[in-house]
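To close the chapter, one final illustration. This time we ask the reader to focus less on the individual chains and more on the assembly as a whole: which components sit near each other, and how the overall shape emerges from the parts.
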Amino acid sequence: MHRVGVLTSGGDAPGMNAAVRAIVRKGIYYGLEVYGIKRGFHGLINGDFEKMELGSVADIIQRGGTRLLTARCPEFVTRAGQEKAINKIKEYKLDGLIVIGGDGSFRGAMALGDRGVVQTIGIPGSIDSDIAYTDVCIGFDTAMNTVTDAINKLRDTATSHERIFVVEVMGREAGFLALYAGLAGGAESILVPEIDFDIDEVCARIKKGHERGKLHSIILVAEGAASGIAIGEAIKKKTDMDTRITILGHLQRGGTPTAFDRIIASRMGSKALDLLRDGKSNLMVGLMGGEIKPTEFSTALSQRKALDETIYDLARILAT
Ligand code: ADP
Ligand code: F6P
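The assembled structure is written out below.
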């Protein structure tokens, strides 16, 4: 093991920079050369490589986004695109490649690992936190706190005006962000793609709360469950109560990573280097019960991460 490449791919997540820093510095500590690859698989195909030094990752541990830039790269899904990437891996004599991203990025890493040209390790970075075999992904804690903070602010104005607020959060296919921020923010109802909901029941809960003197209601909607606009309009029509809609959008993906995200990113980045040095490949690292552990890509990608329904039930009981 002499040379390692690192890239960030798919949607960015706060804490990716802390992972890149850990990979560069641990790699150099091990006496390896580390190359940063720009714009995910796009940079791998096009040879957009940067030799990283200790100072290359100075002053980024606290920054959101990704210093390496990220992209979605449809060309890499094709065999021809992967051949181009393999040629670059050979040209730069990479022995290891660390991919920081979500499940799509891991499929890309696995495609390369399966070809046997390079050892690949994945680090889960996604505010959706929808990857199995890790309790959370890098970026989730920060995004959860961002959404909770937004709910706190909306509650202030919602209470003053005695309004209902429908808040749409990210999560096209997974409701982890909505669920945990909803519990933390005391949302009256949480709508997630994994669990069916009945709009009449949502309205009945709002009315019941109103009758016992609640001054506001917060309805949290994961974008994959329904459109916040449609839900807001339906609630307004069915309850005849003053309703406003807020779509949090991409502000959920930015911001200073929390200490927790920086810590898991640093630990995962470090573990990825250890695994490469041990000759391992086609693994993702995950946080499981406080420890950073490896799991085969094929195992992790074969499962959809399940939402904990006891958390969903708890949120409902506590926000009655
Ligand atoms: P995420 O990693 O956040 O899930 P995407 O699903 O957009 O984001 O995937 C990021 C990139 O990973 C894609 O643009 C593509 O280059 C690569 N990728 C996704 N799926 C595959 C696949 N099945 N095979 C090879 N590469 C893939
Ligand atoms: O996968 C992370 C995510 O933020 C999703 O929650 C969201 O639906 C999607 O990315 C948005 O992607 P884009 O930045 O391409 O609009």
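The longest strand covers residues 3-8. The chain has a mean pLDDT of 97. With these observations in hand, you are ready for the problems at the end of the chapter.
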